[in-house]
Design a protein that fits this description.
Radius of gyration: 13 Å
Shape: globular
Distance between the termini: 21 Å
Strand order of the largest sheet: 1-2-3-4
Helix content: under 10%
Largest sheet: 4 strands, antiparallel
Structural class: mainly beta
Number of strands: 4
Length: 71
């Protein structure tokens, strides 16, 4: 099994995905997402409002199972 957290993400460009939480006064909820370099069908996610809080890594299969079908 590949360690998704071993990749260097410092130079990886993240893309904003937004949707949901539109009733909140802060507006839509958004995440930042980027493919993990060197790993097929794996992605890194960050909070768009606080990207320094950390990064979570998932396989594409895990994200699709959670409802992110835009991958």
């Amino acid at each position: 099994m590949m360690d998704l957290y071993s990749s260097d993400l410092a130079e990886v460009p993240f893309t904003r995905l937004c949707g949901g939480n539109q009733q909140n006064e802060d507006g839509e909820s958004c995440v930042l997402i980027a493919p993990i370099p060197g790993v097929i069908d794996a992605y890194a996610l960050r909070d768009s409002k606080n990207p320094e809080a950390g990064t979570l890594c998932f396989t594409g299969e895990e994200l699709r199972a959670a409802g992110l079908s835009t991958l």
